[in-house]
Amino acid sequence: MIYEVRTYDIKPKSQGEVEKRFGEAYEYRKKLSPLAAFFHTEIGPLNQIIHIWPYKDMAERERIRGEAAASGNWPPKIGEFVLNMRTEIFIPFPYSPEIKPGKMGPYFEMRTYTYAPGEFPKVLKIWERALPERVKLSPLVGIWNAECGSVNRFTHIWAYPSLDARNQTREKAQAMGIWPPSALAKKEGLPEPVLVAQENKIVMPAAFSPLQ
């Protein structure tokens, strides 16, 4: 499976209309393939929408996108509000959960880390060791490696019922010594990957998002 993550920067004060038009168009689009999730940013880089599409592989993605465009009902008519568009293709880590419709949030934290070239095998090993204890405190939505777009980076998404719960969970995990994964790496003498950059945003789902 792959996930296509499309991030659009939109004009200030346009979010309501953008989501309205997107939701209307999605009624046609979902007949071909469903969304995994649709978010807008709440904290971090504002005026962004993020839509996440699951596909079996790149061939299925191309086929479905072609069928959607040929239908005449897609893409949604939001071009007048869009300032910039970015798309990335992600491959789930072997131990990443699959995104399924349902209520997990409504607050989701998307964290993207960039590592030095060649460090990904270390990342896989450390996170595999650290995640089992961490997910006991709050659910992991997904953890994916970027295949197309900006490389040497991965995104992990966490769900929380509130911002207070997010802060309390992170503080508890750190106090227990189980998080972040670098803390476990030091404790167990594992080689720690070289971290280059980190990004973070808090997002919330649109009304039509399968993941809430």
Question: Into how many domains do the coordinates divide?
Answer: 1
- Morphology call: globular
CATH architecture: 2-Layer Sandwich
Strand percent estimate: 25-35%
Question: How far is it from the N-terminal to the C-terminal residue, by CA?
Answer: 21 Å
The main β sheet shows up as:
8 strands, antiparallel, barrel
Radius of gyration: 18 Å
Total number of helices = 5
Description:
The protein has an 8-stranded antiparallel beta barrel with strand order 1-3-2-8-5-7-6-4. The protein has 5 helices and 8 strands; from the N terminus they run E-H-E-E-H-E-E-H-E-E-H-H-E. With 212 residues, it is of the alpha+beta class. It starts with a strand and ends in a 7-residue tail after the last strand. The chain has helices at 15-29, 58-71, 120-134, 163-176, 181-188; strands spanning 2-10, 37-43, 48-55, 82-92, 107-115, 140-148, 153-160, 195-205. The mean pLDDT is 95. Helix content is 31%, strand content 34%. It has a single domain, classed as Alpha-Beta Plaits.
Keywords:
single chain, 212 residues, alpha+beta, Alpha-Beta Plaits, globular
